[in-house]
Design brief:
Number of helices of chain A: 12
Shape of chain B: globular
Radius of gyration of chain A: 19 Å
Number of strands of chain B: 0
Distance between the termini of chain A: 30 Å
Number of domains of chain A: 1
Structural class of chain A: mainly alpha
Radius of gyration of chain B: 19 Å
Helix content of chain A: over 70%
Distance between the termini of chain B: 39 Å
Structural class of chain B: mainly alpha
Order of helices and strands of chain A: HHHHHHHHHHHH
Number of helices of chain B: 12
Oligomer: heterodimer
Number of domains of chain B: 1
Largest sheet of chain B: none
Largest sheet of chain A: none
Shape of chain A: globular
């Protein structure tokens, strides 16, 4: 564990990214579009009354929170990690005296620090624009913050583990895309999970995807009972542990198998 | 004639390139299936809660989704890959490889617009046609040859608009290097998953006249429903002519701005 090296990587990348703020803000705006579309669609659908326990104000709040959580948890490095393994530029990163994962983590922190204030500001503006009524209990805020931190870790680990598969398959782009689509479908972006048919809802509760975005949002809006929150954290912890072990194994085996050609 | 033969060469190269990664191919199939399930599932969940969304029925919304998928697939088949190679991330303007492109003895605009093909969207085209066919079979109005003809005309207008916008945005890359405005287009297009008339008024106006997603997706769907007015088609056609002229002008003007990338 070379913590000083890790911090140096974060600092270096942060300065690099700060100088390209405009670029990242364009990206962040793009990531926002999908939830914004569903916000608009659902608030139009709920104009007539309550749907699945959500009224119009709830839908708007739900999606505004989802935009922030989605931005906070969305990992950006899996694409570049897979690409670097594919084209061999990862060689340089392997030579550094820090664990391989530090490179990805450094970038993740840097991107989040650059993007989150911007996204939060935009979402606040939206909130005023829609004139939402906001009531949040203090204890659900604490729980949601914990859920958010774990969600960031979980979503990062899964994407990172998949990108490491490129050590064996050369290309893991399509698999990453499948993963992103699953997040989109099962993490409560298309619709809050409460509106899903019961069978699908049960499945979604067991898969890791729900815990990457919609779980913290439901927690902060007070849509979950204490028992549901507890079982949610348990499932989440299980997946994180599993993926952490998997990432460790894949990194070890993958770097040993890796060989680059050319100069 | 020579230009057509070149087209064949570009497509052959794309197929050869893709056949090298087989696992990726399986994942692509999975990805197409998932996004289809997601699109239809999203509409199903929505219409479980309501049976009319600002005057659009389920079958009609499904037709919009089909047209959206079709337009996106054609875009992904050739327009997007070609133009991203020019002005996207790591594109030729950025790397300076555009030097070589300029030396090619053929029309620059033709070459940069059709040189890069992607094979997989062909599958997406077939799937989207299936969705459109299914949606039409669910509607009461029967399909006549005249409607089908009008539909094709509206599709040509839609693709012309899309191409012109994409060319316009890629030409911007000559002036502002490192801002990937092309990415915006993909995000804005997502709004076309649902009929533009369900959005709030200001959003709808932007989506009709600034980024004409309305003309690109909603209008062809309305033609299928026999709800479109000839005036709308004419307006779309006019807008296409204007945008195409503007885009061609800007591109050819931007060529003079290009000064290589290296020192």
């Amino acid at each position: 564990m070379n913590l000083r090296g890790g911090l140096a990587l974060i600092r270096g990348q942060l300065f690099g990214y700060l100088s390209e703020k405009g670029f990242f803000w364009t990206l962040a705006l793009g990531w926002m579009t999908a939830p914004v579309i569903y916000l608009l669609v659902w608030q139009a659908a709920a104009a007539g009354g309550v749907i699945g326990g959500y009224d119009r104000n709830d839908f708007i709040l739900y999606y505004l929170c989802l935009i922030v959580v989605n931005q906070a948890t969305y990992p950006t490095t899996h694409w570049t990690t897979a690409e670097h393994i594919h084209n061999g530029t990862i060689s340089a990163e392997l030579l550094r005296p820090v664990p391989l994962i530090y490179n990805a983590l450094g970038t993740e922190f840097a991107v989040k620090i650059v993007c989150l204030p911007f996204v939060t500001a935009v979402v606040t503006l939206f909130g005023f624009g829609f004139q939402v009524k906001l009531t949040i209990a203090a204890d659900s805020l604490g729980l949601a913050a914990a859920a958010l931190l774990l969600a960031m870790l979980l979503r990062f680990l899964l994407a990172y583990a998949i990108s490491l598969l490129a050590f064996w398959t050369q290309q893991s782009n399509a698999l990453l895309q499948v993963n992103d689509t699953l997040v989109f479908l099962l993490a409560g972006q298309v619709a809050p999970l409460a509106l899903f048919p019961p069978g699908l809802q049960k499945l979604a509760m067991q898969l890791p995807y729900r815990y990457m975005a919609s779980f913290p949002v439901e927690a902060v809006l007070g849509k979950l009972s204490m028992a549901e929150i507890r079982s949610g954290f348990a499932v989440m912890a299980g997946w994180i542990l599993l993926l952490a072990i998997l990432t460790y194994v894949l990194t070890n085996k993958g770097t040993r198998k890796y060989s680059a050609t050319g100069g | 004639m020579r230009y057509l033969r070149l087209l064949g060469t570009f497509i052959r190269a794309a197929i050869q390139n893709e056949s090298a990664y087989r696992l990726n191919a399986v994942m692509r199939l999975l990805s197409t299936g998932l996004s289809l399930a997601g699109g239809i599932g999203g509409i199903a969940v929505l219409f479980q809660a309501t049976d009319n969304l600002n005057g659009w029925s389920k079958a009609e919304t499904l037709a919009v989704l089909g047209v959206y998928m079709l337009v996106l697939a054609v875009n992904g088949l050739v327009i997007s890959p070609s133009l991203h190679k020019l002005g996207g991330m790591g594109g030729e303007i950025e790397t300076g490889n555009f030097d070589y492109t300029l030396l090619k003895p053929l029309s620059k605009q033709y070459y940069i617009s059709v040189r890069e093909w992607s094979v997989w969207p062909l599958l997406d085209i077939a799937v989207s046609l299936g969705v459109i066919g299914f949606a039409v079979s669910q509607m009461e109005a029967s399909l006549t040859a005249a409607v089908l003809g009008m539909f094709l005309v509206s599709l040509v207008i839609a693709l012309g608009l899309l191409y012109s916008l994409m060319l316009l945005l890629s030409s911007v890359a000559f002036w502002y290097r490192g801002t990937y405005v092309l990415w915006i287009m993909g995000d804005v297009l997502q709004t076309g998953k649902y009929p533009v008339s369900i959005y709030p008024r200001p959003v709808k106006l932007v989506l009709t006249w600034v980024f004409p997603v309305g003309f690109i997706v909603s209008t062809p769907a309305e033609v299928l429903m026999q709800r479109a007015e000839p005036v709308t088609l004419a307006a779309g056609f006019l807008l296409m002519l204007v945008l195409f002229a503007a885009a061609s002008l800007l591109f050819n003007r931007s060529l003079r701005k290009y000064a290589g990338a290296s020192s």
